């Protein structure tokens, strides 16, 4: 079995927490400045503050991209970039793919090999002029404590660091991880139910995936069981206009139902009928 | 999420009052260290309508695995079992491949696979409350629960690794822990002086006298010490592996001690529970 390189998850979390421990501090400003100053400065910062001992990472294989990302496609990967991300991680065990330390190493490698520049990590590109450079300059120059802290959090999030939002970040708000896991579910479920890979991707669009992913990593994780999720996807495919708030209610009800009924061993088709009944009554 | 629902049919679970005392359902799970397999053994004892349904192929044993860090759920059912008529005992064993390096949460149950109607009689295993009742159980109903599996077998081999350092002063033990590592990767390293190591190597399946109890208590003390330390980490949910966190909470419950603050004494806490048996250490199957 191939061992993949990861940053030690405990050290990776500590690095993030340490940065977040003092809002607006010089420590935060130093981190952002290194990010603004480019690849060499940022890697040097990491060498001094994260990789100060040799066993912070394990010996293993690193995943490399043969693709230079634009800032926008790093932040919102379009379908062809999603394909590149998916291809890059074929064969990597799922355990690595759910590890913050693994993704942290991937991002740092991307910077080392010029696939992205450090300022992308601060990017908030969403149709307005909030590029990484803009966000970093704004944080460094205006010295507003909240703006500085928000920017540090955004950079950490973009690196797959768990400090700002916990380990689930890999599945729902870290750009590359979110893209990978959405495709992974589409791939996995297309082998289990009558919907194709593309149909499932369309069914769990950005909003639908966000709802589903949030539930999976909460007390409603019952939805992630294959037969249950199969029924849910079949239902959404037939009812594409289902509102997000109703999706949430359906997932809630599936969790309640699963207390006494083993819907996890009931076929996806029967679970679809079950979910239709639930939807009719909410 | 609560599992306290009022159903029209009785469900067998620990501490529920519907069944007579001779009927009970227990499950044990052992993770084999070397080949990433989980052996789950279900045992249903006593005469009951549940055993009748199993024998009539109207019910199956089911186990759900939940790999928390990846939010992955898997389910395995089996209708293969051994029936000891004399002992009135049904046993089913499932051998399941583990897909991750950490142990999943394991939730077993018995599930109805065909709509069934039951007329309660003397062989139904139910209390008088249900006498002569007729009840219908819909397909896929859970009719027997076993709560999430605990390390009841005392097999802590997947948690800890014991080694000897001859340079250590007699009687000393050093423990190191990697909180973010899962069970199967043996996050707790116990390094002993030669005399302690020799004592541990003797092992004992169950403590039967003061000496064997003392041997067994060493590993329990170590676990209490390690978890006591981990319990004081600032952000436990992030810093500690979910499998370890679950075990830590179980151990804390077993000792009944308050693990917060400086007053916590791990040695004292470990005396409050049945010690883990040492022969489980580094068991290789």
Detailed description of the structure:
- The complex is a heterodimer of chains A (282) and B (285).
- By secondary structure, chain A is mostly helical.
- Chain A folds into two domains: 167 residues, no CATH class; 89 residues, no CATH class.
- Helices cover 61% and strands 0% of the residues of chain A.
- In chain A, α2 packs antiparallel against α3, α2 packs antiparallel against α8 and α2 crosses α9.
- Chain A is elongated and about 55 Å long.
- Chain A starts with 8 loop residues before the first helix and ends with a helix.
- Chain B has 285 residues and is α+β, with helices and mostly antiparallel strands.
- Chain B has six helices and 13 strands.
- The chains are: A mainly alpha (282), B alpha+beta (285).
- Chains A and B meet through α1, α6 and α15 of A and β3, β4 and α4 of B.
Helix-strand layout with pairing:
The complex is a heterodimer of chains A (282) and B (285).
Chain A: H1 9-20, H2 26-36, H3 39-49, H4 71-75, H5 79-88, H6 94-97, H7 100-112, H8 132-142, H9 145-158, H10 169-172, H11 175-190, H12 197-203, H13 206-216, H14 226-238, H15 244-260, H16 268-280
Helix pairs in contact in A: 2-3, 2-8, 2-9, 8-9, 11-12, 13-15, 14-16
Chain B: E1 24-32, E2 37-45, H1 49-55, E3 59-67, E4 72-78, E5 82-84, E6 89-97, E7 105-112, E8 116-119, E9 134-137, E10 142-145, E11 160-164, E12 173-177, E13 188-192, H2 194-202, H3 210-231, H4 236-239, H5 242-255, H6 266-270
């Amino acid at each position: 079995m191939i061992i993949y390189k990861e940053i030690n998850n405990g050290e990776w979390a500590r690095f993030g927490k340490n940065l977040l421990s003092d809002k607006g501090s010089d420590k935060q400003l130093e981190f952002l400045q290194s990010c603004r100053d480019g690849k060499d400065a940022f890697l040097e910062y990491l060498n001094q503050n994260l990789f100060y001992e040799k066993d912070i990472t394990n010996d293993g294989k690193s995943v490399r991209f043969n693709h230079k990302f634009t800032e926008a496609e790093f932040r919102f990967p379009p379908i062809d970039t999603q394909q590149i991300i998916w291809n890059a991680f074929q064969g990597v065990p799922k355990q690595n793919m759910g590890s913050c330390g693994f993704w942290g190493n991937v991002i740092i490698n991307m910077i080392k090999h010029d696939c992205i520049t450090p300022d992308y990590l601060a990017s908030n590109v969403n149709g307005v002029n909030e590029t990484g450079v803009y966000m970093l300059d704004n944080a460094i120059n205006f010295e507003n404590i909240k703006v500085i802290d928000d920017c540090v959090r955004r950079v950490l999030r973009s690196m797959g660091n768990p400090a700002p939002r916990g380990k689930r970040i890999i599945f729902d708000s870290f750009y590359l991880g979110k893209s990978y896991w959405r495709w992974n579910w589409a791939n996995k479920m297309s082998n289990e139910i009558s919907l194709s890979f593309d149909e499932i991707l369309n069914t769990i669009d950005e909003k639908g995936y966000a709802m589903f992913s949030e539930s999976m990593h909460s007390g409603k994780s019952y939805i992630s069981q294959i037969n249950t999720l199969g029924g849910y996807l079949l239902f959404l495919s037939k009812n594409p206009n289902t509102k997000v708030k109703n999706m949430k209610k359906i997932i809630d009800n599936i969790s309640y139902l699963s207390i006494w009924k083993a819907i996890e061993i009931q076929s996806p088709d029967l679970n679809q009928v079950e979910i239709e009944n639930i939807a009719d009554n909410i | 999420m609560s599992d306290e629902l009022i159903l029209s049919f009785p469900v067998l679970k620990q501490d529920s009052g519907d069944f007579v005392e001779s009927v009970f359902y227990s499950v044990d799970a052992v993770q084999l260290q070397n080949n990433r397999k989980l052996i789950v053994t279900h045992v249903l004892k006593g005469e009951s309508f549940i055993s009748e349904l199993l024998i009539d192929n109207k019910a199956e044993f089911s186990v759900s695995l939940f790999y928390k860090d990846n939010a992955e759920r898997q389910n395995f059912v089996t209708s293969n079992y051994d029936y000891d008529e004399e002992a009135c005992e049904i046993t089913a064993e499932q051998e399941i491949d583990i897909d991750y390096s950490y142990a999943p949460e394991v939730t077993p149950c018995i599930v109805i696979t065909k709509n069934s109607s039951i007329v309660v009689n003397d062989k139904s295993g139910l209390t008088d409350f249900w006498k002569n009742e007729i009840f219908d159980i819909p397909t896929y109903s859970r009719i027997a629960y076993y709560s999430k599996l605990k390390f009841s077998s005392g097999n802590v081999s997947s948690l800890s690794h014991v080694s000897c350092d001859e340079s250590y002063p007699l009687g000393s033990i050093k423990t190191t822990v990697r909180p973010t590592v899962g069970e199967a990767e043996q996050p707790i390293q116990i390094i002993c002086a030669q005399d302690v190591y020799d004592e541990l190597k003797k092992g004992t399946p169950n403590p039967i006298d003061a000496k064997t109890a003392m041997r067994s208590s060493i590993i329990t003390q170590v676990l209490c010490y390690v978890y006591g330390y981990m319990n004081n980490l600032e952000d436990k949910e992030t810093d500690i592996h979910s499998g370890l966190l679950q075990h830590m909470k179980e151990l804390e419950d077993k000792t009944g001690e308050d693990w917060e603050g400086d007053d916590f004494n791990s040695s004292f806490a470990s005396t409050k529970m049945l010690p883990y048996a040492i022969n489980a250490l580094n068991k290789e199957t």
